[in-house]
Amino acid sequence: xxxxxxxxxxxxxxxxxxxxxxxxxxxxxxxxxxxxxxxxxxxxxxxxxxxxxxxxxxxxxxxxxxxxxxxxxxxxxxxxxxxxxxxxxxxxxxxxxxxxxxxxxxxxxxxxxxxxxxxxxxxxxxxxxxxxxxxxxxxxxxxxxxxxxxxxxxxxxxxxxxxxxxxxxxxxxxxxxxxxxxxxxxxxxxxxxxxxxxxxxxxxxxxxxxxxxxxxxxxxxxxxxxxxxxxxxxxxxxxxxxx
Length: 243
Hints:
By secondary structure, the chain is of the alpha+beta class. It has a single domain, classed as L-fuculose-1-phosphate Aldolase. It is 41% helix and 14% strand. The protein is built from seven helices and eight strands. The protein has helices at residues 3-22, 79-91, 104-110, 144-154, 174-195, 206-216, 222-237, and strands at residues 32-36, 43-46, 62-65, 70-72, 97-100, 131-134, 159-162, 166-171. An eight-stranded mixed beta sheet has the order 4-3-2-1-5-8-7-6, with helices on both faces. Helix 1 (3-22) packs across helix 7 (222-237), helix 3 packs across helix 5 and helix 5 packs across helix 7 (222-237). It starts with a helix and ends in a 6-residue tail after the last helix. 40% of the residues are buried.
């Protein structure tokens, strides 16, 4: 594996954490963003235990193996970061990046019995049939068995809504996963606002869902442009994230 690839991976993951903090998505010093180390099937990067995301830098990220051993870095990793993320990375090689937050609107939707992301908003359509729902809250993710259960439920889905807990997304790159996380929060916010009107929501029909989703999934570079814009702003506002 090339050191410059690892260096860029560290910068991208640190940028995602910093921007998520700016959006108000962190809960205390909890929740985790992880990314498989480029070129490795056994090692992943993850934010260090006990750090606010606004403190995280590229060099403070920890490298650990899928069995939970820290192999690079001066910091520790919270147990739930390993038990939830490692099984998802291990179960599906497409899930190179896994982002988990307790961001308010997506988490709120997770708290409503049988709630789903509904096909009523253009931005929601890419999530239809791409989102798994865990209806069986099993407590804190403090065992590999619990993480394996969640990973099995997630399968090839790229978004996971964990009832009584919160959301989780996966992607092939940090840019892809962060864009997915960003719009998930926006979709849930608008849907919850619409639900408050107490009137029926107008659903998009399946053929149009598939057509719009195909466009979203066609490989458009928008997600890269979105993340590049985030890094440009961080270069001005918080340039130390690259350190």
